[in-house]
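Invent a record, attention on tokens:
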Amino acid sequence: MEPLLVPVIYGSVRTERQGIRAARFVVRMLERRGIRAVLIDPREKQLPLLDRMYKEFPPGEAPAVMRELAELYTRADGFAIVSGEYNNGIPPALKNLLDHFLEEYFWRPAGIVCYSGGRWGGVRAAMQLRMSLAEMGMVTIPSLLPVANVATAFAEDGTPSDPATERYTAAFFDEFVWYMEALRARRAQGVPS
């Protein structure tokens, strides 16, 4: 069987962004479980502000970056969403990146990793994400992975500052894998029309 495939969708384009460290940590932890994790960075993908969703383009006419993401998302077993908290909500780059697609997300779980520069770990953004992701057809797993003080929580490459981080985040990743395996099996049997 093919390894699980997870786009790790990161949401900040800010010059001094720190959350990219958390996104790299997520990629590392998924790869250690034998999962193919693909970091989706809005700074690299450069999607335009939403005018037309991928599905609204005639076949073959969507920009190449949208076609690439649609193909990846269609094959994905789940999505790890890594979001900072901007004014109690999610970053605009993340919302824009997510909103270009819809059916590609259906019947797949999402694991929410939220962060902030302070001690609350971006949990208010995570609550907003739960509503949006459900509307997009994703099932958010019950657990969250909040990261407080993100600038000091990880090195630039995603290595945790506290060696215990991998241990106390294991349950989140185990739960995410369980949901991906369960929903992959059910999608293989068909989905409601």
About this structure: The radius of gyration is 16 Å. The domain at 5-188 is CATH 3.40.50.360 (Rossmann fold). The chain is about 40% helix and 20% strand. Residues 165-188 form the longest helix (24 residues).
